[in-house]
Amino acid sequence: MVTGYNSNDKVFLAVDCIIFGFDGENLEVLLIQRDFEPEKGKWSLMGGFLKNNETLDDAAARILHNLTGVHDIYMEQLYSFSEVDRDPVARTISTSYYAIINIEKHNEELIENYNAKWFPLSEVPELIFDHNIMLNKAIRRLRRRTSISPIGFELLPEKFTMRQLQNLYEAILDKELDKRNFINKINSMDVLIKLKEKDMTSSTKGSFLFKFDKDKYDEKQTNSFYLKL
Amino acid sequence: MVTGYNSNDKVFLAVDCIIFGFDGENLEVLLIQRDFEPEKGKWSLMGGFLKNNETLDDAAARILHNLTGVHDIYMEQLYSFSEVDRDPVARTISTSYYAIINIEKHNEELIENYNAKWFPLSEVPELIFDHNIMLNKAIRRLRRRTSISPIGFELLPEKFTMRQLQNLYEAILDKELDKRNFINKINSMDVLIKLKEKDMTSSTKGSFLFKFDKDKYDEKQTNSFYLKL
DNA sequence: CCAAAAGTGTTTCCCTTACACCCATGA
DNA sequence: TCATGGGTGTAAGGGAAACACTTTTGG
């Protein structure tokens, strides 16, 4: 006997993607304006339905790519939302994913752009369904993650200044950090390579550029090297 | 126009519950022996299908209660598993939940017991589907949580000795802790009340019993008071 | 009187934090 | 020459970890 598999219990399973980006100044999130019902015209996360032949991870990647042109992003599963009436059209459970990406690097993909637009976190509009709740949960998770393992590789241009990295951390954590302590902390992580080049755009003196040491960075990532700020 | 809602995409959404308990010595997990196909006779987590009129949280509580008699447990959502072939009968996504409970307190419920049985973590058999993977993920999460906020209220009898509490932490973290440092740490959390009674079963001298100060405990819980061991 | 577990403080070390001044250069 | 951001080190304080001996009492 096989129990429990009753077709009446089948549901729609959606996937919604929360994509964070960093423009050098603010932490932003990618949203799209819906051009279909329900809630046509309102802003929302990138969402779609799980297909029968793909995993949730696959679906998240496909949906993000279809709606924004962005591809090759590692997204992490966040949470599954299941309020009975969260979607007014049909019973739909949604599993949310989030990722942080380098805005510049993906700008080209976004240019011919599908209705997608970056919003600073402080200017996010009211979103459809429970998407604001999803976004808030993603922000909290991102902050926690930032305190636990290094971040930035995905968010900064290949070469960046120490100030840019600090701006990133300050934007994510939403607090100011001491310049010297920050540098000491970052150096102690041993994931940066100091270049001989300087960026001359930000000051008369110019500031040295850095890049991530990808091998070391990945190692620290997976080992959840502890960074508290 | 309403796009995307195509009935072919509907899937079964299961919920699986990982219940940890502590017997004073070892960390254990509650499993049931399936009395139905597929995989009849094999051990598994407590699982069932999401119904149309309930949230995932509701479903987890209902399933746990139906299969084990245990009720009034706060479970936390862990992760949604979606490998295409994870369930050989039909495409099924499973959202897992986990909780830690006091074995003694729920023993009565378990006595007339449905096929449920406690297994020490080191003696967990091969489980159906991807349930071993779920369990491992839950253990990792439990360990991390234990390092971040106090734990024990749900797992120990109302009155307990300091040694029992230390045993609990050692079982969860799977490492030995220094007795004096442990006591200092716990005292600094200020969540215990020392009783005048002694437990005389464990030694000739006897050891003082403690209980949790529920108000303070809950406060620390929600504030994610930091405890590193 | 002895075995077995309970109980108890101090020191060291490292990480975190706070903090201020000089440097280089283009305008 | 001056305004602007870049770059640099140290001292104090607090939490974590290491560590050993005395107490109690039933058998």
UniProtKB/TrEMBL annotation, chains A, B:
Any single Pfam family the record assigns to this protein: WHD_NrtR
Domain Nudix hydrolase as annotated: residue spans: 10-141
Organism field: Algibacter miyuki
Protein's recorded name: NUDIX domain-containing protein
CDD domains: NUDIX_NadM_like
